[in-house]
Amino acid sequence: MVRCEICQKEFKRITHFHTENMHGVTLAEYRELFPSTNLESVEYRKSQSESHLGQPAWNAGLNKYNDSRVEKYADSLAGREFTPEHCQRISEAKVGSCSMAGWNKGMKMEFSLARAEAISKALTGREITWGDKISITKKEQFKDPEFAKRMVANITAHASSKNPNIPEQMVMAILDACFPNQWKYVGNGGTEFGGLMPDFINIDGKKQLIEMFGDYWHRDENPQDRIDHFKQFGFSTLVIWERELKNPEKVEEKIVSFSSVETLHEPSHVEEEKVRHS
Fold it and tell me: Pick from 222, 260, 223: which is nearest to 239 by CA?
């Protein structure tokens, strides 16, 4: 029950009928006089919630972009501030009801041509900086051994179902043709060294790895960092860039040269510069 701040009577819900007929003030004026008071009891909100169970939403089937009723409701919410208590109730009500992908999982996004053009225009020239912030934050978090351990375990669990992408499939084809039964694809989380998972590992007695670097995803990475990392575990590493696959013959020659080396393979800076600008 909620108590009227003026007459101290208790109600399930305080309405404008009570405030206007009994005290001569509108409900809006009552809210201004007593901003922290509740107008609806827990019992009332619960009964309202239960009465709507299984019922279709009031705006079901309405076009959310041009229906006047939807527009009117949206206007009524514009600039509205929710109390911390209200936000907390919404949060508690949604616990366990939202999947990882969010409320719109599986829904198809459809835009009219005009809306699509408006979105495109709004994003034109916009500088995206949140990606850099996330990257810096993650690098700091990975300095914590426990965090790194959890992340590696999570990545390994989800990577087990990962299939080789097209560049990896091209490298696999070269390996199968030139070195049958000598290399294994482990980019799906099958092998991990110090938190990093290589794409291919030699299974013919040599401690050698091959990494497939995508031109986009690895654009800001230095291949030598990956080579130095796996070197700590006694492995030599060959890095192949996606752009190199435009010339499969050269990639084949590169792998042949790498496989013939018995010691740790460390390409010179001159070689790396040729790869970057090829």
Answer: 223
- The C-alpha atoms of residue 110 and residue 113 are separated, in whole angstroms, by 10
Predicted structure pTM score = 0.43
Question: Do the domain assignments include residue 96?
Answer: no
User: How many other CB atoms are there within 10 angstroms of residue 278's CB atom?
Assistant: 11
Q: How confident is the model at residue 225 (pLDDT cuts 50, 70, 90)?
A: very high
Q: How far apart are CA 278 and CA 273, in angstroms?
A: 8
Number of domain units in the chain: 2
pLDDT of residue 158: 55
Mean of all residue pLDDT scores within the chain:
78
Q: Domain limits at 227? A: 161-277
Output the CA–CA distances (angstroms, integers) from residue 264 to 236, 258, 276, in the order listed.
4, 10, 21
**One-letter amino acid of 73:** Y
Is 55 inside any structural domain?
Answer: no
